[in-house]
Amino acid sequence: MIKHIVMWKLKDTAAGASKADNIQKITEQLNALVGVVPGLVRVEVGKNFSESPAAADLVLYSEIESKEALPTYQRHPEHVKVAQFIEAVTTDRQVVDYEL
């Protein structure tokens, strides 16, 4: 099982919406990928409440069946659509993939 974790900092406004609205849109879009993208087992999206300047605004914790399924997830057309939206509304991204 692969654990795929991504953290983003969002722009205050982007794509005609506020940061809060874009966080909601990202959350909905990522959750909608479960059952659509082969190999994607679980998605959990969390909005940050920490006031630390080092904190990200949003985190994705996801579980993917295997290392072999990770590229399939990343290239799936529905994931690509979500990723393009996220790229348009964020300023920073960090990712960690690990296997247990």
Number of helices: 3
Shape: globular
CATH topology: Alpha-Beta Plaits
Distance between the termini: 6 Å
| SSE pattern | EEEHEEHHE
CATH architecture: 2-Layer Sandwich
Percent of residues in beta strands: 35-45%
**Strands in their spatial order, largest beta sheet:** 4-5-1-6
- Class computed from helices, strands and strand pairing: alpha+beta
Q: Compute the number of structural domains.
A: 1
Find the count of extended strands (DSSP E, 2+ residues).
6
Report the major sheet: 4 strands, antiparallel
Weakly predicted, low-confidence segments: none
What percentage of residues falls in helices of 4 or more residues?
Answer: 25-40%
Calculate the mean pLDDT score and round it: 97
What radius of gyration results from the CA coordinates?
13 Å
Name of the top-level CATH class? Alpha Beta
How would you concisely characterize the structure shown here?
This protein has helices at residues 19-31, 69-75, 77-89; strands at residues 2-10, 13-14, 17-18, 40-47, 58-64, 90-99. By secondary structure, it is an alpha+beta fold.
Task: Give the arrangement of secondary structure elements.
Blueprint: E1 2-10, E2 13-14, E3 17-18, H1 19-31, E4 40-47, E5 58-64, H2 69-75, H3 77-89, E6 90-99
Antiparallel strand pairs: 1-5, 1-6, 2-3, 4-5
Helix pairs in contact: 1-3
Could you describe the 3D structure shown?
Helix 1 runs antiparallel to helix 3. The protein has one domain: Alpha-Beta Plaits (2-Layer Sandwich). The strands form two sheets. Strands 4-5-1-6 form a four-stranded antiparallel sheet. A two-stranded antiparallel sheet has the order 2-3. The protein has three helices and six strands.
